[in-house]
Write a structure and sequence with these properties.
about 5% strand, 11 helices, about 210 residues, single chain, mainly alpha, Annexin V, domain 1, 2 domains
């Protein structure tokens, strides 16, 4: 269910820097408890195998159960240094949740998503609320940035989990269009919903 604007907690004046957001989470029992859970499930030593399914469940519990203003403040926190951006990329969205030895083809990832009830529903929500349009200056068909950001967040903890690319604000799922053959256009369109989507970009910029 998509919340109303008042429930999203993503107003620009609510946005914190990452130190403040982490501190606020640690001072809240629910936020700290759920964050500790996904750290335990997702942040394993390099020699330990990653249980991606358990990591995904813990991430979904965090974003589904922690107060929106705290969980989204942590996800969309601001950084002023490259080290902070690295920590944001690696700890708020642990590599276990999305990264594999080799990038799979995006169409294969999409097919897995369609066979999973939760992922399929949340991807549909993302496509509806983050649909890019060229005729609208805002970039979004719904012209509701908060709904787009909420739908984007809903994909976290699924096989389509997106993350920041390097230290930029650009995001992408962990997949590639290499080897798509005659379905290259279809694959590039799917990947472009994250990497070349003015609605999603404007939604991030609106914070």
């Amino acid at each position: 269910t998509v919340p109303t604007e008042g429930e999203t907690g993503l107003a620009a004046d609510d946005r914190m820097d990452c130190v403040e957001a982490t501190s606020a989470c640690n001072k809240n029992a629910s936020c700290q408890s759920h964050r500790t859970e996904f750290f335990m499930k997702c942040m394993r030593p390099s020699e330990s195998p990653c249980d991606r399914e358990s990591c995904h469940v813990a991430l979904r519990r965090f974003y589904d159960n922690v107060a929106v203003v705290r969980s989204r403040s942590l996800l969309f926190c601001t950084c002023s240094t490259e080290n902070c951006e690295d920590r944001r990329r690696l700890t708020i969205m642990p590599e276990c949740s999305y990264k594999q030895k080799e990038r799979p083809n995006c169409l294969n990832v999409h097919a897995k998503c369609l066979h999973d009830r939760v992922c399929r529903s949340r991807l549909d929500d993302f496509r509806m609320n983050c649909a890019p349009v060229s005729y609208c200056r805002a970039g979004c068909e719904t012209e509701n940035y908060k709904r787009c950001l909420y739908a984007y967040t809903g994909l976290i903890g699924t096989v389509m989990t997106p993350n920041y690319i390097n230290t930029s604000l650009a995001v992408s799922p962990w997949c590639t269009c290499d080897g798509s053959g005659n379905k290259l256009d279809q694959c590039q369109y799917l990947l472009g919903l994250f990497t070349d989507n003015p609605c999603l970009s404007e939604s991030h910029s609106s914070l």
